[in-house]
Write a structure and sequence with these properties.
With 426 residues, this protein is an alpha/beta fold. The strands form four sheets. Strands 1-2-3-13-4-14-18-16-17 form a nine-stranded mixed sheet, with helices on both faces. A five-stranded mixed sheet has the order 11-12-20-19-15. The protein has a three-stranded antiparallel sheet with strand order 5-6-9, with helices on one face. The chain binds zinc ion.
Length: 426
């Protein structure tokens, strides 16, 4: 691997204002690397040694590379494509007091206050009726389009900024001249008349440019680092990995931020069906599939909480990761994180073998912590699994912060994992 991974990640984040665009950005890279697209609705015929990808719901994607022989199992890294945001409600334009706002609802658990007073836009997809067919079009207004201005301090000196109301305080401002501006903008972007727009999944997106900063340029900040940083870094390692005896699967699921229960989320059939279809297309029977699953390993890669020096008391007294100090191995007794002694040992052995530093995370025992994808995915395709992440600050802020060195750590780990290093160590 010889990559400027932070520059690549930065480009990827700019291309990915939301989950639909993130999947499109991955597809462009897969096409360039010679991977072939599969449709879930068609019969698969697969060739050993080749690379393929399949999407579901336009917002989840599984890319895979096959071994030259029948796969011994699946080596999987899973991350998520979605980030907390605000979704436009149907018929969102609201004109009052000579101002045009858009009606939105929350998507996931964002830090609401961070969405005030910064340039935002709108991204997602619309479904258009084009005579004989429905067509899905990606929409992104690639300019500063809306803003959620905060209330001046002079008008409410007693206020608490802890949790502003979405319906009351967080509706974005779009314009002040044209009542019909939203319809005009949307029809221009969709390329059809308003009556031909039959469906939309559109979200606010933060437009702030990624930044490398700090005394020695050690920090990287950008929107959507959770979880596009893990998505991209593991993808870079996936592309760089040499062929191995296990099938290499790179999974990116939508809807992690709202619990993963959707047609394309980690709790869906997407991964299990893809794994089964790979085996079937390669002439393996049910017995061979079950044996392959038993020889599989999942790395659930979702960002982790780095120690925040202003709030050190919120963390476990011992297991408190730092940015730039390596991959974070997550532990939780209740199995919200899948890590157990076996997967922990294999992960550590692999990190040592490929020279990637790691550190351990556990929640403060009185703080419940968050959830992620590994244990949810394991209800559908049950394999040995470990939960890891990149140490970051300000998780679920509109603008998050991580360490510059850690994306390269994950890329190097992924390259070794997919390249068969784990199988050699077992
Ligand atoms: Zn996440």
């Amino acid at each position: 691997m010889n990559r400027d991974i932070i520059k690549e990640l930065s480009d990827f984040l700019i291309e990915s204002p939301g989950c639909y665009h993130a999947v499109a950005a991955l597809k462009r890279r897969l096409d360039a690397a010679g991977f072939a697209e599969l449709s879930e609705a068609e019969r698969w015929s697969l060739e050993p040694g080749k690379g393929y990808y399949v999407t579901r719901g336009g917002s989840s994607i599984i890319s895979f590379r096959l071994p030259e022989e029948k796969p011994k199992g699946f080596h999987i890294i899973a991350s998520h494509s979605d980030s907390p945001s605000f979704k436009l409600k149907p018929d969102p334009a609201m004109w009052s007091e000579g101002l045009l706002r858009l009606n939105v609802e929350g998507y996931g658990g964002m830090i609401r206050s961070t969405w005030f007073d910064r340039p935002l836009s709108i991204a997602g997809r619309v479904l258009t009726d084009e005579g004989d067919a429905l067509r899905e079009r990606l929409v992104y207004f690639d300019r500063d389009l809306v803003m959620i201005p905060s209330l001046a301090i002079h008008l409410d000196r007693e206020r608490s900024d802890a949790k502003p109301s979405i319906q009351g305080e967080l509706l974005p401002l779009l314009g002040a001249t044209d009542k019909d501006a939203w319809t005009r903008l949307l029809t221009e972007a969709a390329g059809v008349d308003a009556e031909h727009i039959l469906g939309m999944d559109l979200f606010l997106t933060c437009r702030m440019a990624p930044a490398v900063w700090g005394a020695d340029r050690e920090f990287f900040s950008a929107p959507r680092l959770d979880d596009l940083a893990c998505c991209y870094a593991s993808f870079a390692g996936f592309l760089d990995a040499s062929p191995a005896e296990h099938a290499a699967l790179h999974c990116v699921f939508n809807n992690e931020e709202v619990g993963s229960r959707s047609m394309q989320g980690a709790e869906s059939t997407f991964l299990a069906m893809t794994a089964r279809r790979i085996c079937r297309a390669l002439g393996m029977d049910g017995e061979a599939f079950d044996a392959a699953v038993a020889d599989s390993f999942l790395v659930s890669a979702d960002n982790a909480h780095a120690l925040h020096p202003n709030y050190a008391g919120k963390y476990d007294p011992v297991n408190r990761p730092h940015m730039n100090k390596g991959l974070v191995l997550k532990h939780q007794a209740g199995q919200k994180y899948t890590t157990d002694a076996v997967s922990e040992a294999l992960f550590k052995k692999l990190c040592k073998a490929c020279g990637v530093p790691y550190q351990e995370y556990a929640n403060h025992s009185d703080v419940p912590g968050g959830s992620t994808l590994g244990n949810i995915s394991n209800t559908q395709l049950s394999v040995r699994a470990v939960d890891i992440g990149l140490a970051q600050l300000a998780m679920h802020s509109a603008y998050e912060t991580m360490g510059c060195a850690d994306a390269g750590h994950l890329a190097r780990f992924a390259e070794a994992f997919y390249g068969g290093e784990l199988a050699r160590l077992e």
